[in-house]
Amino acid sequence: MDHITLALPQEPAGGIAGWAADLVDAMGAPGAGLAVALENLFPPLPSEIILPLTGFAAGQGVISLYAALFWTTLGSVVGAAVLYWIGALVGRERMYAIWAKLPLVKTSDLERTEEWFAKHGTKAVFLGRMVPFFRSLISVPAGLERMPLPTFLALTGLGTLMWNTVLVMSGYWLGDQWDKVGDYVGVLSKIVLVLVVLALAFCIVVRVRSRGTAQHRRTS
Q1: Alpha carbon separation from 60 to 55, 64, 74, 184 (Å, rounded)
Q2: What are the pLDDT digits (tens) for 168-195?
Q3: What does the pLDDT look like over 14-60, one tens digit per residue?
Q4: Taking the model in full, what pTM does it have?
């Protein structure tokens, strides 16, 4: 495969975008997947840079759009699975002790994520994939509570695919303006969450109405 250098506006060669671009240049789409897997394992690495950059690379023909979506989603799921097993095997006390020693992260962030998981359960795993920083941390309480692994992976894959698609496609459409996605990632996150909540509410209404209709038919 020919080595193709990405043109990255307003980003130093040693920055995160430069690092991610080097991975894509060297490994193609699997390099983007590796970058996203590491982003899950180390939350300070921002997906709002890595994913739009991957979309930009797809728009430039460096990788295919399908490969960009597939590998970034696979990387997210693999990274989330690693954190799940770390939480499951290490345990709560040792996990918090390790977390307190890590740079650029706060114990309070892990505590808030655990509280959110306790409140929302499986929905937290799905919705958490669309909230920056929480998208990585939500795997830890899922592992600590030994959430069924097939359920965890299914919800992680679905939520991740939705969020990755939004950011990758944003970079794809914006072209050399891909770096502007980070300015609007909070708004994008809220829009996606609202759409998901509305979709869930719609499904619940349809199910309740279907049950009501079925009960009415049995009693009539």
Answers
A1: 9, 9, 22, 22
A2: 998 888 777 776 766 666 666 666 666 6
A3: 566 677 778 888 888 898 899 888 887 776 567 778 888 888 888 88
A4: 0.73
Torsion-angle region of residue 121: left (phi > 0), alpha (psi -120 to 50) or beta? left
The DSSP secondary structure of 77-98, one letter per residue, reads HHHHHHHHHHHHHH-HHHHHHH
3-state secondary structure of 182: helix
Tell me how far apart the alpha carbons of residues 10 and 157 are, in angstroms, rounded to a whole number. 32
Cβ–Cβ under 8 Å, residues 63 and 57: yes
User: In this structure, how many other beta carbons lie within 10 angstroms of the beta carbon of residue 171?
Assistant: 27
User: Token digits for 87?
Assistant: 């939480």
Closest CA relative to residue 111, chosen from 89, 129, 128, 95: 95
Looking from the CA of 131 toward its CB, the CA atoms found within 13 Å total 17
Q: What percentage of the chain's residues is helix, strand, coil (to nearest 5)?
A: 80, 0, 20
